[in-house]
């Protein structure tokens, strides 16, 4: 087991060290651009071009297709460091890398579709995401039937509908969607290439994570050939596939802990250097400030130990992934709620100056709030933990 401490996760080899070093260099660059992207709500095309040129888009692609095939442990290390510079970029990139990791480990897609996606990622630097959420139906995790429809057509299907929270949409050419089968009590998943009939409505004007490009996806009789059908499941049934415990979603935890670490770092440096005339010493010498910083360190250390320990277990114990799903989800619950508390305490340390739009804490605080609405949602995490305690979870 890799040793863990609050300041840095110790690495096992030079490759991991090089990846973390790359992430830190990119994060410095992204941090310089983040205020403008946040203020404008603009998608960071420049950041993703840098990621593409650095080979970061293929990190989780299997080696058989030319990717790096990094572990979940390495992925959360990488994204945590990216998030210290820009949370929106880290979270957006995480969906691409995380979903490819899940497809790599479950192989739930037809092999020819997965191979095509991987080759596009490696050879052309293409991005991928899967779009499920829709306006007006609530969280897809609660079993709502998609309003997006798939109608049988000669040689394939015609998709029509609207998807919300479509992260990466301004910069994506290949994605999957969930749709109801017209005239049948069934649901299908379809692999879609950007083409005529695919549109975007710019709806993403939010409090936090303003640069993820999570606008609404519009589909108007978009043709999907039969060969691009991922799966069709009758009502009440799910496609049989290996259960991975949705551990790949721990990338979300990494992004919010990266933001929390950035808030901690800013508050610590402020406490070390800010010396009011009335005090005659840095505020870090005050017991109240030390109390805040100590509590920040306690929460950050606890959340990071949980995240990296569970990521390592996901990597090393594939046979236990399904049984560990509640604990994987708990890492996200702990990471986000700890990050909210950490950013709040950091602002208390820095005082009124942290309210300024020019202060990075202000943006970090808003970005972290968005974590409450990333999956899995808090109430579902608690429900699963209760079911496990009662012996009802399987």
TrEMBL record:
<feature type="domain" description="Acyl-CoA dehydrogenase/oxidase C-terminal">
    <location>
        <begin position="252"/>
        <end position="370"/>
    </location>
</feature>
<dbReference type="InterPro" id="IPR036250">
    <property type="entry name" value="AcylCo_DH-like_C"/>
</dbReference>
<dbReference type="InterPro" id="IPR046373">
    <property type="entry name" value="Acyl-CoA_Oxase/DH_mid-dom_sf"/>
</dbReference>
<feature type="domain" description="Acyl-CoA oxidase/dehydrogenase middle">
    <location>
        <begin position="132"/>
        <end position="222"/>
    </location>
</feature>
<dbReference type="InterPro" id="IPR006091">
    <property type="entry name" value="Acyl-CoA_Oxase/DH_mid-dom"/>
</dbReference>
<dbReference type="InterPro" id="IPR037069">
    <property type="entry name" value="AcylCoA_DH/ox_N_sf"/>
</dbReference>
<keyword id="KW-0285">Flavoprotein</keyword>
<protein>
    <submittedName>
        <fullName>Acyl-CoA dehydrogenase family protein</fullName>
        <ecNumber>1.-.-.-</ecNumber>
    </submittedName>
</protein>
<dbReference type="GO" id="GO:0016491">
    <property type="term" value="F:oxidoreductase activity"/>
</dbReference>
<feature type="domain" description="Acyl-CoA dehydrogenase/oxidase N-terminal">
    <location>
        <begin position="29"/>
        <end position="101"/>
    </location>
</feature>
<dbReference type="InterPro" id="IPR013786">
    <property type="entry name" value="AcylCoA_DH/ox_N"/>
</dbReference>
<dbReference type="Pfam" id="PF00441">
    <property type="entry name" value="Acyl-CoA_dh_1"/>
</dbReference>
<comment type="similarity">
    <text>Belongs to the acyl-CoA dehydrogenase family.</text>
</comment>
<dbReference type="InterPro" id="IPR009100">
    <property type="entry name" value="AcylCoA_DH/oxidase_NM_dom_sf"/>
</dbReference>
<keyword id="KW-0560">Oxidoreductase</keyword>
<keyword id="KW-0274">FAD</keyword>
<dbReference type="InterPro" id="IPR009075">
    <property type="entry name" value="AcylCo_DH/oxidase_C"/>
</dbReference>
<dbReference type="Pfam" id="PF02771">
    <property type="entry name" value="Acyl-CoA_dh_N"/>
</dbReference>
<dbReference type="Pfam" id="PF02770">
    <property type="entry name" value="Acyl-CoA_dh_M"/>
</dbReference>
């Amino acid at each position: 087991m890799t040793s863990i401490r609050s300041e840095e996760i110790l690495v096992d080899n030079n490759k991991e060290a090089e990846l973390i070093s790359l992430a830190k260099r990119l994060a410095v660059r992204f941090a310089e651009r983040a205020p403008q992207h946040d203020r404008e709500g603009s998608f960071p095309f420049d950041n993703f071009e840098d990621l593409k040129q650095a080979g970061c888009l293929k990190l989780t692609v299997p080696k058989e297709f030319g990717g790096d095939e990094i572990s979940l442990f390495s992925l959360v290390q990488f994204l945590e460091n990216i998030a210290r510079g820009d949370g929106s970029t880290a979270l957006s990139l995480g969906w691409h890398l995380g979903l490819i990791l899940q497809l790599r480990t479950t192989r739930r897609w037809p092999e020819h579709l997965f191979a095509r996606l991987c080759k596009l990622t490696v050879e052309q630097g293409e991005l991928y995401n899967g779009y499920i959420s829709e306006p007006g139906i609530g969280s897809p995790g609660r079993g709502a039937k998609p309003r997006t429809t798939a109608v049988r057509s000669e040689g394939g299907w015609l998709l029509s509908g609207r998807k919300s929270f479509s992260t990466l949409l301004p910069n994506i050419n290949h994605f999957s969607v969930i749709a109801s089968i017209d005239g049948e009590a069934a649901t299908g998943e379809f692999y879609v290439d950007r083409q005529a009939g695919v549109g975007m409505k710019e709806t993403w004007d939010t409090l936090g994570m303003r640069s993820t490009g999570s606008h609404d996806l519009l589909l108007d009789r978009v043709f999907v050939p039969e060969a691009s059908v991922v799966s069709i499941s009758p009502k009440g049934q799910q496609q049989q596939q290996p259960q991975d415990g949705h551990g790949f979603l721990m990338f979300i935890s990494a992004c919010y802990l990266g933001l929390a670490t950035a808030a901690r770092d800013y508050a610590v440096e402020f406490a070390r250097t800010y010396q009011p005339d009335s005090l005659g010493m840095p505020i870090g010498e005050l017991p109240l400030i030390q109390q805040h910083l100590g509590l920040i360190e306690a929460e950050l250390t606890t959340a990071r130990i949980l995240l990296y320990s569970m990521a390592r277990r996901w990597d090393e114990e594939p046979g236990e992934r399904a049984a560990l799903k509640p604990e994987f989800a708990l890492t996200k619950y702990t990471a986000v709620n700890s990050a909210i508390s950490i950013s709040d305490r950091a602002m208390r340390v820095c005082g009124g100056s942290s309210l300024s739009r020019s202060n990075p804490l202000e943006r970090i605080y808003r970005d972290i709030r968005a974590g409450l609405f990333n999956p899995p949602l808090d109430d579902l995490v608690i429900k699963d933990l209760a079911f496990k305690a009662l012996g009802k979870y399987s």
